[in-house]
Amino acid sequence: MTKPTHLKVALVQQSNTDNAQDNMAKSIAGIRDAASQGAKLIVLQELHRSLYFCQTEDVDVFDLAETIPGPSTDTLGALAKELNVVIVSSLFEKRATGLYHNTAVVLETDGSIAGKYRKMHIPDDPGFYEKFYFTPGDLGFEPIHTSVGKLGVLVCWDQWFPEAARLMAMAGAEILIYPTAIGWDPRDEKDEQTRQKDAWVISQRAHAVANGVPVISCNRVGHESDPSGQSEGIQFWGNSFIAGPQGEILAEANNSDEQLLVVELDQARSENIRRIWPYLRDRRIDHYQDLTKIYRD
């Protein structure tokens, strides 16, 4: 496929409730708004159909999972075709009974599924008990080929790992995309909250710099209670952003409101940046063997 030189992209930062139908309606409204502003690639946040249910371990939550293809991909595929846009969605995938993934799926302009990515790095921390719900991905780090270019789609915790971004770039990804659900423990002090959010932004901007490609990071926003009542829940910090291939911030949302960001990317800049900062040329792969080890004892 021939990619456009100038590509208008968008992300939808939203808050969620326990009503999946309302959440999807909100996502669809954001997609329509973005398309009306000329966006051709539109990114939704991680698990945009539901609350972030991984604050607790509850077997009844598996009822939220759906197949791919399934109801959500049917709905979003029809919307992508109607609006002539590419959509990146994030779904709780039921692969088989007892086998579930945290999966990003890309809908092409003709309504078809261009590809999917199953989250590879699965966290297991207080308030983020994802290993209970998600089997680690088995599709590897492969860009998804679309009419707007090769998309390196990763999910949330993946964004902290430079290896994932590098492997996507090495496979030809032209944009790195991170649907995300990350937030603060409301009990943390303000300074600690700032450090956490800044680290999150810095890490992803560094992926843009190190690989010479734009980054789209779409986070949720708003407070979601802990169903168990054992904590004060999570205050999702928003701050979704779009960065250019030198890590420059092109657009950034705040940490409290639902927002739509729309930016035009000049895809030729990645080519120019890689010429003056040729990281791929100068990699010393003959001395990187230890990267396949967990740790050097």
* CATH level-two architecture: 4-Layer Sandwich
Strand order of the largest sheet: 5-4-3-2-1-17
Give the overall form.
globular
Class by alpha and beta content: alpha+beta
Calculate Rg over CA atoms.
Answer: 18 Å
Mean of residue pLDDT values: 96
pLDDT < 50 runs, ≥5 residues: none
What does the model show?
The chain has helices at 20-36, 71-83, 162-170, 190-211, 268-276, 279-282, and strands at residues 6-13, 41-44, 86-96, 99-107, 113-118, 124-125, 128-129, 144-146, 149-153, 175-180, 183-184, 215-219, 221-224, 234-237, 241-243, 249-252, 259-266. The termini are far apart. The model has no long low-confidence stretch (mean pLDDT 96). The strands form 4 sheets. Strands 5-4-3-2-1-17 form a 6-stranded mixed β-sheet. It has 297 residues and is an alpha+beta fold. The chain is built from 6 helices and 17 strands. The longest helix has 22 residues, at 190-211. It has a single domain, classed as 4-Layer Sandwich (Nitrilase/N-carbamoyl-D-aminoacid amidohydrolase). Helix 3 packs parallel to helix 4. Helix 1 links the parallel strand 1 (6-13) and strand 2. The chain is globular, with a radius of gyration of 18 Å.
Key phrases:
297 residues; alpha+beta; Nitrilase/N-carbamoyl-D-aminoacid amidohydrolase
How are the SSEs placed, and which strands pair?
Elements: E1 6-13, H1 20-36, E2 41-44, H2 71-83, E3 86-96, E4 99-107, E5 113-118, E6 124-125, E7 128-129, E8 144-146, E9 149-153, H3 162-170, E10 175-180, E11 183-184, H4 190-211, E12 215-219, E13 221-224, E14 234-237, E15 241-243, E16 249-252, E17 259-266, H5 268-276, H6 279-282
Parallel strand pairs: 1-2, 2-3, 9-10, 10-12
Antiparallel strand pairs: 1-17, 3-4, 4-5, 6-7, 8-9, 11-14, 12-15, 13-14, 15-16
Helix pairs in contact: 3-4
